[in-house]
Write a structure and sequence with these properties.
By secondary structure, this protein is α+β, with helices and mostly antiparallel strands. The chain has eight helices and 30 strands. It is flat and about 105 Å long.
């Protein structure tokens, strides 16, 4: 009798955890079964373990009716992602029901180190109690070297402020599904991050004599902001693998080998199945060295890189006194030019200096960061003559030479001719005079008797006058609200996604409905509906649409007052869409009834919009 069967016989809530033996870089499942009663949506609580990631990957329900008695078991799946070899103990899983906490026994997991290409795990992912069972019908990958994520940096030892390139690639010997989801983003604590576009699509590469399908996942430029040992944690991916499902056969079946594989190595009676696997890469330690204090010039302002150069130019050689001209100082090279400080000008009393304008131009290349920064100094000479603009000085730390390098520009000359003087007004320029001179007789005297006054309406109290004065205030408030919304849309990404989710979803549904009638088959509509619904829910939950599954959606919406009937309708429609995408032959009739599906999606989005 299995542990789950014993739970059903005992009744109540019982948690059963199945153990597994795993291999580094391969994801294996941890299952927590909750049997008896009516399991809720909230998954059991599984505590994280240092060196072993535990991620939720979904849930499934098992309902059995024996002799008229129904039993319900919910199996929660968790993905185990080992970060290093060793033996780990997962604390007991806990769940609270009706004020009482139930828990399982702790689970010990042994993680073996990888053994090179072609190494096979020894009993990986197989619990002791299932060792004598029949082989499973689906054949998911179990080789640590058949599916893995490789993450690397261009250099492991760098200086503070020195850019380094981070890249990650997915290697697979198996056929990949359509959507590779980002389960957990990479962590770059202590770095400034500049994104770089990864190469789209996949390619085939041979590594270590093994042929792989390679997908570039991410590529970023990292700039360390502090010294010390910084740890980069690569991303975690949910990878859909296309595997074949074979019929279960007995070892004594004389026709088993005949029907399992044909002459070309493919199963004769088989179909494809999507199996999701989670992969990640070990953390990458990067040693960041501080910039040396010895030999640091006073002109150093934090620039780090290689091959920097300095130029200066003026837009005028001859000008008038107090006339402005522009002096441009350009600093360019390989490195983060945003750290380049403003050069200092020693002008003296001959020039008046106005506020400086700075324009950085950053370029993200394969080898790292490069670019230029232009400083525009606006100057005005105070007196005529031949004037000299002293050269400027710029110092940076050269990471290739491992020393400070100082660049200087030559002095510039400008010819200033006499012009308008700069006037300074003060009270000394004005003198009081006791003499009054008559300059003309153009003063019109006031009439002493103006006649009777007429009573006119009070314009200041009229509604039109008050409204005319109120309109500018209302317009100003409206402009302020629009600007505040625009800024929030730019700065608050989760709020922006939630605000635009309904509009995007309705636009997607309208595009589906507007397709020509001959293109509106049930498959095309349901595939489009799945993209619209998953995109809408991803925007509302601030998640990536790639890899979003029904179990995660139900878990996220469980605490948001979503009506169970509405949740069931949403799950049913998503299940129908998923079935049409991966198993269209079993979707059943109704290839012409596409309008009800679009209408159902519109109603679901409208009802979800009221509670999300």
């Amino acid at each position: 009798m299995s542990p789950v069967d014993r739970c059903r016989r005992a009744g109540g809530w019982v948690v059963v955890v199945l153990s597994a033996l795993v291999l580094t870089s391969v994801t294996y499942s941890l299952e927590v079964s909750v049997a008896g009663g009516s399991p809720g949506n909230q998954p059991p609580e599984v505590q994280p373990v240092d060196g072993l990631k535990v991620l939720t990957s979904g849930a499934s329900d098992q309902i059995q009716v024996v002799n008229g008695e129904m039993s319900h078991t919910r199996v929660h799946q968790y993905a185990l992602l080992p970060q290093r070899a060793g033996t780990f103990t997962i604390p007991p899983a806990k769940i609270e029901v009706n004020g009482k906490v139930h828990q399982s026994s702790p689970v010990t997991v042994k993680v073996l180190a990888g053994q090179g290409p072609g190494a096979q795990p020894q009993g990986a992912g197989v619990p002791d109690e299932t060792a004598t069972r029949q082989p499973p019908q689906s054949q998911p990958p179990t080789d640590a070297n058949a599916l893995f994520l490789k993450a690397r940096v261009s250099r492991r030892e760098i200086y503070q402020g020195e850019p380094v390139v981070y890249s990650s690639r997915l290697y697979s010997q198996y056929r990949l599904g359509d959507r590779i989801g980002l389960k957990e983003e990479a962590s770059f604590q202590g770095f400034l991050v500049e994104g770089q576009q990864a190469t789209p699509g996949g390619r085939v590469a041979v590594e270590g004599g093994v042929r792989y399908q390679v997908v570039d996942v991410s590529r970023k430029i990292l700039v360390p902001t502090r010294p010390g040992t910084l740890e980069i944690k690569p991303e975690t991916l949910q990878v859909p693998l296309v595997v074949r499902t074979r019929r279960a056969t007995s070892a004594h079946d004389p026709f088993g080998s005949l029907f399992d594989d044909d002459d070309f190595g493919f199963p004769l009676f088989s179909r494809q199945q999507i199996v999701n696997k989670f992969v990640t890469a070990p953390p990458i330690p990067v040693t960041v060295m501080p910039l040396p204090a010895e030999g640091r010039p006073a002109s150093f302002a934090g620039a780090v890189g290689t091959d920097f150069y300095l130029t200066s130019a003026q837009d005028k050689d001859t000008l008038k006194e107090n006339e402005t001209f522009t002096l441009k100082v350009t600093v360019a090279g390989n490195g983060d030019v945003r750290t380049v400080g403003e050069p200092k000008l020693s002008l003296g009393p001959d020039f008046k200096l106005f506020p400086t304008k700075s324009t950085p131009k950053l370029e993200v290349k394969e080898a790292g960061l490069s670019g230029s920064r232009v400083f525009e100094f606006l100057l005005a000479p105070r007196s005529p003559g031949e004037k000299v603009i002293p050269g400027v000085e710029f110092t940076y730390f050269d990471t290739a030479r491992r020393t400070y390098v100082t660049k200087r520009t030559a002095a510039l000359k400008v010819t200033v001719v006499a012009g308008e003087k700069e006037e300074v007004l003060s009270s000394a320029n004005f003198r009081q005079s006791s003499e009054v001179k008559v300059l003309g007789r153009d003063i019109q005297f006031i009439k002493e008797a103006g006649g009777a006054l007429e009573d006119v309406s009070d314009l200041a109290r009229s509604p039109s006058f008050l409204l005319a004065n109120l309109l500018p205030v209302l317009a100003l408030v409206g402009v302020w609200l629009i600007e505040a919304r625009r800024r929030r849309l730019e700065q608050d990404v989760p709020w922006a996604r939630r605000s635009r989710a309904a509009g995007r979803a309705r636009a997607g549904l309208a595009a589906l409905a507007a397709r020509p009638r001959e293109e509106q088959t049930l498959k095309t509509v349901l595939v489009g509906l799945e993209e619209v619904l998953l995109g809408y829910l991803a925007d509302k939950l601030n998640r990536s649409a790639a890899g979003l599954v029904v179990g995660q959606i139900e878990e996220q919406l469980s605490g948001r007052a979503v009506d169970p009937a509405l949740m069931n309708r949403l799950k049913a429609l998503l299940a129908q869409c998923e079935q049409m995408r991966y198993a269209p032959a079993s979707a059943g009739p109704g290839a012409d009834s596409t309008e009800p599906s679009i209408k159902t999606a519109e109603e679901l989005i409208g009802q979800l919009e009221e509670v999300l």
